[in-house]
């Protein structure tokens, strides 16, 4: 897959905010501030890292990680993560936990440890246009071939091809090979179920994402998106244009 250009790697995908709030100036909020600084700095050095921040209070630690797309250079990864963190204050003000997904990067923090744990919860999906009837059977064969290559592949970053259909999968760096494989398989199953004969699709799960597209598909703006419920503690805002961040987070 070609590297994202500088005008789209920070494109907003979704954000999830905890419904609980932290108190400004509290030890936990101090730990969060320190954590976000560590994440932003580490993104200049690698495509993945995780931290536990407890300097302000060992009893109120903050946990966090970031994951950039593997094909992005570190300088672009750092810019993407910093863009996500800057948007956080407007998208999830004072939330005790949040997840922000941009096109080129993802970061998450919270007051309960999720590091190293599998998570196949579907957080967001979007599908392309439905293929014409005369092409749908061929598209399904090529799509399934590409997605099967992702499900059977190894590593945290996977590519698949089936005729004119391409596929890409990436797991968060804290996942074991088995957990990564399980997450990718779950995302593939979600795409097949939700997107049907669409010519493109994306599925974002808690610890991985999978996307496919045909060479003829317009992937700049998929036909429709959906944000499933993710539990009573979290709310998800998808493709939300807030006035204060409209120029940087909405496309």
UniProtKB/TrEMBL annotation:
Keywords: Cell junction, Cell membrane, Disulfide bond, Host-virus interaction, Membrane, Repeat, Signal, Transmembrane, Transmembrane helix, Transport. InterPro entries: Cell2Cell_Antifungal (IPR051378), GNK2 (IPR002902), GNK2_sf (IPR038408). This is Gnk2-homologous domain-containing protein. It holds the Pfam family Stress-antifung. Gene3D superfamilies: Gnk2 domain, C-X8-C-X2-C motif. It is a single-pass type I membrane protein. It comes from Musa balbisiana. Residues 10-114, 117-217 form the Gnk2-homologous domain. GO terms for cellular component: plasma membrane; plasmodesma. It is found in: Cell junction, Plasmodesma; Cell membrane. Its main location: other. Belongs to the cysteine-rich repeat secretory protein family. Plasmodesmata-located proteins (PDLD) subfamily.
């Amino acid at each position: 897959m070609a590297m994202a250009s500088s005008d789209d790697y920070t494109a907003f995908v979704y954000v999830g905010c905890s419904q609980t709030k932290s108190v400004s100036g509290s030890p936990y909020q101090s730990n969060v501030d320190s954590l976000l600084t560590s994440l932003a700095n580490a993104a200049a050095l690698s495509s993945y890292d995780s931290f536990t921040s407890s300097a302000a209070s060992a009893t109120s630690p903050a946990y966090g990680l970031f994951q950039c797309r593997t094909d992005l250079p570190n300088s672009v990864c750092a810019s993407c993560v910093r863009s996500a963190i800057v948007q956080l204050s407007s998208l999830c003000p004072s939330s005790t936990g949040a997840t922000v997904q941009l096109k080129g990067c993802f970061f998450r923090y919270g007051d309960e440890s999720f590091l190293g744990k599998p998570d196949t919860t579907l957080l967001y999906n979007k599908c392309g246009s439905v293929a014409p009837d005369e092409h749908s059977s061929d598209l399904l064969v090529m799509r399934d071939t590409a997605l099967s290559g992702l499900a059977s592949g190894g590593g945290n970053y996977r590519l698949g091809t089936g005729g004119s259909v391409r596929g890409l999968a990436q797991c968060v760096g804290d996942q074991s090979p088995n957990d990564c494989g399980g997450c990718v398989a779950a995302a593939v199953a979600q795409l097949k179920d939700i997107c049907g004969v669409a010519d493109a699709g994306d599925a974002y799960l808690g610890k991985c994402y999978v996307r496919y597209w045909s060479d003829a598909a317009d992937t700049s703006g998929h036909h429709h998106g959906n944000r499933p419920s993710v539990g009573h503690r979290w709310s998800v805002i998808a493709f939300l244009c807030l006035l204060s961040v409209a120029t940087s987070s909405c496309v």
